[in-house]
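Record pair follows.
FIRST:
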Amino acid sequence: MIESYENAFQVIVLLVCVIIALLCIIIYHSRTWIMLFYFYGAWLMGDAYWLMCLIFYGQVPQITFISDISWLSSYIFLYLLLAQTAPLEENRRRYCLPWIGPVFTICMAFFFMK
């Protein structure tokens, strides 16, 4: 029961963050705010799916790939935001860092398939 309250609170906070980012897009016309809007939006969709499963089915979903995909896509938008706002010399040093996520995901996929 407490998990549904926590998820509802997360959805409300993320909805407020999406609205604030959308207002900042309209005011500032900046690509940075667009990436932040997409990050919050993708995270919101994952949490909303999780919350709807708790409300309608009364339990945590058995297969969570829908929410996992939206959460992983939100990390991609966050990485693009960080890459866009970082200085040019920092971007060259962090070239291998984004490959850690897909490698970890593939390893975990093989682990859970066994």
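SECOND:
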Amino acid sequence: MRISNPIRAGAATAALLALLGAPGSVLADDKPAGETWQQTMSMEMTGMNMPPRTLQVCVPPGKAQETFSKPQGPGMGENCTVQDAKHAGNRFTAKFICTGEQPSQGTIETIVEGDHVKGTITVAVSGQQMTLKTDSHKLGTPCTPRAVPGPK
């Protein structure tokens, strides 16, 4: 199965963070209220580990698996495709390939267990291997998704 999903290629770190960095923030303001989730992200690469970063994201009610299982965020564009996307129970896996100034490729895996989502993204870009890990849990407080400019 092949699913194409555009993502704009950018700087290596920005590309990683864009994949899961702000999954709920790309929704339009006219959508119904969402649920607040807290997401902690960490990144590792050869010779460097970024300390974990925690942020809150607004997710449409009942859409955590869908939201956290897709590459989304401000880095979306036309230079990447998602391939071999598979849902098996609470687990989602896919591969992605990006072309352009900084070609990259990698894998995505998310596991949803109730109000908890764990994710791992590995990416190879410019000869560097990076791993982004996310750990998200539902806070449950209502929120309003904010619009973030995306591709046209």
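COMMENT: The chain is about 10% helix and 50% strand.
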